[in-house]
Specification:
It is built from four helices and 23 strands. By secondary structure, the chain is an alpha+beta fold. The chain has four domains: about 45 residues; about 90 residues, conserved putative lor/sdh protein from methanococcus maripaludis s2 fold, CATH 2.40.420.20; about 80 residues, Elongation Factor Tu (Ef-tu), domain 3 (Beta Barrel); about 130 residues, Beta Barrel (OB fold (Dihydrolipoamide Acetyltransferase, E2P)). The radius of gyration is 47 Å and the shape is rod-shaped.
Length: about 375
């Protein structure tokens, strides 16, 4: 009975082991089959399914104008300081204010002339008497009734009286403050009723209302500037102005190693004001430039790169791997950028989508565009 039971248990164990082995073998076969299936070319996802869709353009040659860009201050061409030339008199009139346009000889202010008029009348009387005495002495000279020394004394007194009268009349002219030239008043310190000292500033004016741009350029840039060149200025308020080069500085600043270019602003056509700081754009002669769309240039870690495409068909659906190439950029015009180094004419670069790609990434061209296969411009 016990033997029979023991044999039954052994038989059951053997059957269970056989089942386990069969299941394991079947599983291994399925794994092998599955592994074989993943390597089947027909079922592999493929590189094309992972490619990003981009647009491309070819680097082309074009003639672009060489441009110098510089910044500088807008200042008066010349300033005139109008000061007091008399002492001890108070101002009775102040006729102009800051911003007023004035003409040469226009009365800007007037000092009290009362004391000067009184002195003038007194000096006129003294000169009249001295001149009469001189004439009488000359009449007595031939008769011998007066010495040569007395005659000389009377003549000296008359000349002195005349000089004193002239000086007082000059002070009277200085009591009326006039504009030395056409221009605009840029500052006023004259105050009605104030007593001004000789030489004290009353007004400051911009002569002829002329402004100039004083651009700062290095030695190499300064050598390219010639008289008569036109400069486009970008003003702080968003407006623009045009200036014409009048002259350049004969020397550079020893500290900054920069020189100044003086350019006259066209009057009456600008909102420029003295004291503004403006960026200037100076157009020089045209020269060839290798250009690509600005969107093709990406900035990474402070350096400029483009994503090059290898030579291949530009048909829609074509898949290629990109190469990240460092480039040096130059001028910018509209939506295009000049490539100074790192790219050759005719080489294709990714435009739309360039900012999301890295070295070796697979891409597919959206469509075969004219920009992507445009011929090189001569």
């Amino acid at each position: 009975m016990n033997n029979t039971h023991h044999q039954g248990v052994k038989r059951q164990t053997a059957i269970t082991a056989a089942i386990v082995l069969a299941v394991a073998a079947a599983g291994a076969g399925m794994l092998v089959h599955h592994a074989g299936a993943t390597t089947t070319p027909q079922d592999k996802p493929g590189k094309a399914a992972q490619a990003a869709t981009v647009t491309a353009a070819a680097a082309t040659l074009a003639n672009w104008p060489a441009v110098l860009e510089a910044s500088g201050a807008i200042a008066p061409w010349q300033e005139a300081v109008v000061g007091a030339q008399v002492t001890g008199l108070h101002l009775t009139e102040v006729n102009v204010n800051v911003g007023d346009r004035v003409r040469k000889g226009q009365v800007l202010a007037r000092f009290d002339e009362g004391l000067l008029r009184a002195d003038e009348a007194q000096l006129k009387a003294a000169w009249t008497q001295a001149d009469t005495n001189r004439r009488r002495a000359q009449q007595l000279k031939d008769s011998g009734g007066i010495s040569e020394q007395d005659i000389l004394q009377y003549a000296t007194q008359a000349d002195t009286a005349r000089a004193q009268l002239d000086a007082k009349q000059l002070q009277l002219r200085y009591a009326v403050v006039v504009a030395p030239d056409d221009g605009v008043i840029s500052a006023r310190s004259a105050t009605l009723g104030a007593v001004a000292g000789s030489g004290q500033e009353l007004f400051r004016m911009i002569r002829q209302n002329r402004l100039e741009w004083r651009g700062e350029l290095n030695a190499a840039q300064l050598a390219q500037i010639a008289r008569g060149q036109r400069i486009s200025l970008a003003l702080p308020d968003g407006a623009t102005a045009v200036a014409t080069v009048r002259q350049t500085a004969p020397a550079l600043d020893v500290q900054t190693r920069l020189g100044l270019v003086y350019a006259d602003l066209e009057p009456g056509t600008t909102t420029a004001r003295a004291g503004m700081y403006a960026n200037g754009r100076i157009v020089l002669a045209q020269r060839p430039a290798l250009i690509v769309p600005a969107a093709a240039v990406v900035i990474r870690d402070g350096h400029s790169y483009v994503l090059k495409l290898p030579s291949a068909s530009a048909a829609s659906g074509d898949v290629r791997s990109v190469a990240l190439a460092a480039v040096t950029t130059g001028r910018r015009q509209g939506t295009d950028t000049e490539i100074v180094a790192g790219l050759k004419a005719g080489e294709q670069v990714v435009v739309q989508g360039a900012g999301f790609l890295n070295e070796g990434d697979a891409v597919r061209l959206a469509i075969a565009t004219g920009a992507a296969s445009a011929p090189v411009k001569e």
